[in-house]
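User: Before I run my own analysis I want an independent prediction to cross-check against. Here's the chain; please return only the structure tokens and, at the end, one sentence I can use as a sanity check.
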Amino acid sequence: MEKLQQQLKQIDGKSYKGYKQIQGTYRFQAFTLHIDYVQGDPFAAPSKIRVHVPSKQRSISSSWLETGRRKTYTEDRMTREVAKAIRNNDTFIKGSGKSGMVMVDQPGQEILDRTAVSFDEKGTTICLTVGLPANGRRINGKQAEKLFFTVIPELLKQSIFSIQDKELEAASQLADQHDAIYEEMEKNDWISFVADGSILPRASGISDRPMKNAVPFESPEQNRVAFAIPHREEPLTGMALKKGIVLIVGGGYHGKSTLLNAMERGVYPHIKGDGREYVLTDSSAVKVRAEDGRQVSTVDISPFIKNLPHGTDTTTFSTENASGSTSQAANVIEALEAEASTLLIDEDTSATNFMIRDERMQELVVKEKEPITPFIDKIKQMNDELGVSTIMVMGGSGDYFHVADDVIMMDQYLPYNVTSKAKNIASKYPTHRSESIDSSFGALPKRSFLPDSLQTRKGKKEKVQAKGQMLILMGRTEIDLANVEQLVDASQTRFIADLISHLDKKGKLKKQQSLSELLDEIENQLDEQGLAAFAPFQNQHPGDLARPRRFEIAATLNRIRTAKVKDLR
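Assistant: Structure tokens:
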């Protein structure tokens, strides 16, 4: 502590690069400070520091570490407390560029496995990003002293040293409740559960917080279930959707897409008070949509598209500019290849000719002239042969009534089970469209990404960098993730960027294993070693990473425009 003070006095007023001298470890009275990375310029990417508080200064209950979910939830709660303390910080630090800036990787509404705060038996580690103070491009040592000796200790005082154990205990109890709901879902073959009283609408298109004065969810009687969960006196009740084909119907603006969105985001648990904290969906559920213009690399889309003009092969189909129907077919196949067990589809973001061809169009454009087998003709095969369920918003076509196992109608944001009525209507008005039914769904690809796919160099330097939530720069290539809708946090994108760099440096693609095998290997390493194992500097704890699912990792690899792919079948 005293050594750091002396160093800051010595380098005060010198060139900004002099800050490099303070990299290292310093013992304070209640914590240890690790200055891991020092920025080279006040306007450059900020510096990285870790603060370790030993358990004798802030005890960690062994019960918070009992399960992986408890650990993740309590770490998440502490991260939110640190973020709150930073927001409430009123100590002003003068300087140019990013001087005095202090940040932590602040979570959104979802609870994700992160690196920002970590607990173990020895204590708590908090990873922060700071801007070291400068006057122009010279060191402002006095303001740096204020940063390290006033701001940082005050942030700790207002977060880790002030949060009560009962608040962290509440987070671990929510973890227990979610575990219990997942167990109930698995036992009863439910693909989604929405609790009564949930607030599904969000505040706005740019805010994921719950809408005020929204209509609380109330489950339809036919789908209502009740069961006990820990730390709650009354049984939890809500709507359970079983495996199979589920349609969500209703008029415009009555809540169809809102319900699907809640289920789509329900693959991640949500914090208490979010309104969706008891909305949980099969963790292997994947939202698929049309995506005009995307890259497709050696994907077998023949279950949906074949007999193209000019004899184009669709068993190993590639294009740099996919159409709506072709991109949606590829998205479905790629999700299945990554081992999705449920598909989530909204007609508003689907290609019409991929979803349905009515009898009139079939008569005008005969089967021999139409290469697309619409989704309606494959959905049941997909369920029966592959065990893949579908939850689909459909407001414009009743042709799906006859294949649906459950039909939920949204009326003024309240759901009603109208399955019987829908089946009666299907019988009363039978469709005369001819089904394009093959003997089986078709084989799924077994693709391997070749090493040349990862062209990470820009000139002489290797560069893979996340730019926000929806873009990764890999060498000279942009990877556009704007339509990967279940990528919910920029920290997940940063992890995927680090993962791409890791795969390239370690030569992981030289093994020519299938994509599914590669994803299994990544997930196993994450489970055993954590997120930091894939970071560029493994001896330092990266503080701004969050764990994505295997499906978002696969979606990123599939959108690399330099991808070189081989089908191993």
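Sanity check: The CA atoms of residues 96 and 136 lie 6 Å apart.
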